[in-house]
Write a structure and sequence with these properties.
136 residues; mainly alpha; 0% strand
């Protein structure tokens, strides 16, 4: 192998290594930041979220007390409506998930079904844990 080919190979190897290190660093930083933020910031209640938003709007826009009260009521109503949409959507997703699982169970062997149930239970537990962490 001549020197020019070796040099090109070394440059490519170094570039791939640096790109991998940079990508890993970015993903690691983002994951650590998300993990740290979720453990440090307690979830706000609906009332606290509304109060925070109304306070922000009052400072930014200059709402008077009557306007702030109206804004708070509107925001709370919207949050309630949005939660209903999310709950309905999650229920629809659960139905599709259950249907797919039933279809899979139809072709699994008894041994596979037992492993599948363990797998599904683990997924459900992780999903529940994520929901609780998000405050839903």
């Amino acid at each position: 192998m001549n020197a020019a080919v070796r040099q090109k190979a070394a440059i490519w190897l170094a570039l791939v290594f640096l790109l991998g290190a940079a990508t890993g660093g970015v993903f690691g930083y983002n994951m650590a930041r998300r993990s740290y933020a979720s453990t440090r910031m307690p979830a706000l209640t609906d009332a606290q979220r509304v109060a925070k938003k109304v306070t922000e709007m009052t400072q930014e826009i200059g709402l008077d007390q009557e306007q702030a009260n109206k804004a708070g009521t509107i925001i709370l109503d919207a949050q309630t409506e949005i939660r209903g949409i999310r709950d309905k959507s999650e229920a629809d997703v659960d139905l599709v998930r259950m249907k797919a699982r039933d279809e899979m169970r139809a072709f699994l062997t008894p041994e596979q079904k037992a492993k599948f149930e363990d797998y599904v239970n683990r997924l459900d537990a992780e999903r529940k844990k994520q929901k609780e962490a998000q405050g839903r």
